[in-house]
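User: Sequence in, structure out. Go.
Assistant: Echoing your sequence, followed by the structure tokens.
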Amino acid sequence: MVTSPSRPESGPGSSPTHDTGTDLAERYGRSDAARRRRLVVAVSGLVGVVALAWLGWVALDSSSPDVQSRLTAYDVVDGRTARATVTVTLADPDVRASCLVRAVAVDSSPVGERSFTVTGVEGPSRVVVDVRTEREADTVRLIGCTTPDQSRPR
């Protein structure tokens, strides 16, 4: 086959002498897909930054609670009384903490509860509370302590 030098070959192996992508962009303008893609990337990045900021705030807020509590000992005094020793740590002496302990029977049913408040003490303090029960308790569980700004018991 003889080809003329003035007419370029067309086909799968040939390369055009001009860029058709540039011609199309000049002729029809930029595609909406490219604009949409840039918008999706920008919005996704913004959502990611906001999510990371929120996660950091939550982690920082929950890492320094107003109150922490720990059941250090318990004793079943008699068939109607259980005694719990709780260590409560307040971050600030102005914080008022409400704490709850629960006496539980052998069958895991609650047989008594006692709530108490701790205020005016900074740092750890030991609190001993007696829980009246409807029948003999097997164990005492600390539900936790809360403050007006900390609704999850700790």
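User: And one key feature?
Assistant: The first helix runs from residue 20 to 28.
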